[in-house]
Design brief:
Elements lengths: L1 H13 L8 E6 L3 E8 L4 E4 L5 E5 L3 E7 L4 E6 L4 E4 L4 E5 L5 E8 L18 E5 L3 E8 L4 E7 L2 E7 L1 E7 L4 E6 L4 E4 L2 E7 L5 E8 L1
Antiparallel strand pairs: 1-2, 2-9, 3-8, 4-7, 4-9, 5-6, 5-8, 10-11, 11-18, 12-17, 13-16, 13-18, 14-15, 14-17
Length: 210
Amino acid sequence: MKSAIGFALLCISLWPSLPFPKDIERIRNNQVLVTEVVLAPDETEKLAADHPSVTVYWKPASFEVIRSSGNKKGVSVTEGESLFDAAEPRSIKNTGPGELRYTRVEFLGTGSSEIWGTAGLSPKYKVLLENRYARVYDIRIPAHTVEPQHTHHDRVVVCLSGATLKHRYADGHEEESTLKTGETAWRRGGTHVGQNLGDTNLWAIAIEPK
């Protein structure tokens, strides 16, 4: 008992100096692996990059991408910007003055040549990119507004500005849900009418794997 207490006290005494994980797994299923990463200035993340991916950036930032060939490229991104990366080993170095925070969505399937375009989406949604692995689009629903009926596939939702929502489905039943600012969530596909019940504007990036 004394040895166990002593070990616990030692852990507590060392706690302030222990490193915290910079990569946090948020979602894993048979379609995607979603990881959130935070890099301090000059910090680097090395990626084996076994799968193609889309990365969503949480705030404006600058970084350097170092490919396996040794080629280096400087990149600047804005809040909510979403970029596709092929399956290739690389390193990401934060070259900016502040933290670099991003969510990486890796696609575990083989993809599809089918093109979805804007099919099924609300007319206010903006498609940011689409390829054989995913469709990525920008969702903005102002406070106290209702959007027309639309359809989603299964998707990852990266929430940049949260809100309280109500969904009305084709069979008439309704559900309320909340997306919090900074949250990354997995949502099943479906057809519904969406309503923003709250006082804040919803802003989210949706990533639908194929």
